[in-house]
Amino acid sequence: MLSAFKKADYQNTAWFLLEKLIQLIVGAFIVPQIFSSLGATNMGELKYAMTIIGIFTPIFSLGLLDISIRDIIYNPKRTNAILSTSLFLQLGSWLLIFICLLIYLLFSADKSQFVLYSIIALSYLTRLTNIADYYLLATKRVKYIFVAKITSLIIITSLQYYGVQNQFDILYFAQITALDFIIQGIIYFLVFRLDEKIQIKLTRFSAIVARKLLWSSYPLIITQFLLYLYLSLDKIFIKYYMDNEAIGHFYSVKFLVITLTWNFGFAIINALYPAIANSYKNDKQQYAKKMAVLLKALSIYGLLIVVFYHLFGEFILSNYFNETNEESFRALKIFSWAPLIIFIGMIYEKHIINNNKIYKDAIRFAIGIVVNIAVSVVLIPRYGISGAAISILISHFVINIGYVFMDKESRRQALYLIGR
Known about the structure:
The protein is mostly helical.
């Protein structure tokens, strides 16, 4: 089974997993302390603000990550033009959204959140440094991404710990988000200047390249916008039916499941995607073999997450997070099934990107939004954050498994992979 990928692919994956392991250790140390310092209500307020701004992430990024990586792999001679044009496109998009947001905040009836929302929106400008990731991922230089992210993580964690010790407010922790990507950008700049094998130059904006990129990515923009809206519905409904404190409690559940465990599977998929995309272009049989291996491996990992949190979830919540309650324990056990289902959907998404049938993502996430809303309005008022966890789980199943088997072509391909 391991022979499906090359040694370099596993080396890339090892760098990604090491990064996530360090993030897990650091996150397990600092996040409960931030939660305890701010309290569930303030943590909920911060996460809600980040969620609202985060809905616009696909418009900031224009869905260019996977498209740019794919095009660099397929057309390496056009790397400079692809990276430069992607950067200018995202800069223009951010500027437009930021101006619209400022106008809305200035004329909004509730101006109390102006500073918080502005800081979070500004942090997305600093995320443009992620353009370096496109090249480093496409050329399998993942170790540089590891160095940048871990160096930034150490600095940011130190600042967060300082904030906890001095009982700083949520604005301090919001500002740190922007600093994270600035540090990474400085490291990427030094890498590109010092590594003689990297020949990257910022060129002029290319209208031809821009049209090609946007033509390929516009389905992803729509899809990812629907995805982010879909992923934000739980917080929006919890805020509407309950309060910021409930959002804070649900954040502790999502932190354990998503940040500490799901992220490992996410890292594996992203690390191996360049090899998968290359196989799709050159060897369809090898491509199918790699997809089957990835599907089986992550299904096993997803089941291990479920077992882990059913056995130890209550102990972790009660010992590392203050203000936890019985409802948080129930929500954690329910939500622990989410990674298993999401992994299947993520692998499917990479497949339809390679097939250039991204419109299917838009369809399934639109279905997911309808299902999530319908279930949330029934379950959240009655069962609180446990209802939110059930709503997410049901909608995840519909879009990540149900849709695959409802779509004739996808069903045939899925059954073929399962049978390998």
